[in-house]
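look at this stuff:

>
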Amino acid sequence: MGLFDKIKQFVSDDNKNGIEIIAPLSGEIVKIEDVPDVVFAEKIVGDGIAIKPSGNKIVAPLNGKIGKIFETNHAFAIESDEGIELFVHFGIDTVELKGEGFTRVAEEGQQVKIGDTIIEIDLPLLESKAKSVLTPVVISNMETVAELTKLSGSVEAGQTPIMRVKKQ
């Protein structure tokens, strides 16, 4: 096997084994360790990144099925077609707002594609009332993950990759 065959093998292996997680909201990627909540910062619920939001909707970051949408619409879980369990939690202590600023668009059990709107948000209202609007996006079944690559920079909902995952 020549050098180009080896390079081609690496590239195609990445495509086969790597799963891209796309930004569920527009904004700026922040390290999960910088989230002002010990549950996320210490990766108790899983590993991932957070996003400082700039948009007005939260979209599906993967093709898959919505598991749970919290009653207050501030967080949801989704399981990808490949078995990645992802938890998206808008802001910190936003459960205390009892749903104010959040409008549910999707339903539990619904099959979704990347970019489908799940929850619409009133960002100015949430910025004025929430402890923080940093939004953790974490993989809750890390035991199935062999490799996690966290990306950085500005992201657009439904467009920009935020993490790449290789399963065990």
In short: The chain has three helices and 14 strands. Confidence is low (pLDDT under 50) at residues 11-15. The helical segments are 3-17, 38-41, 123-129.
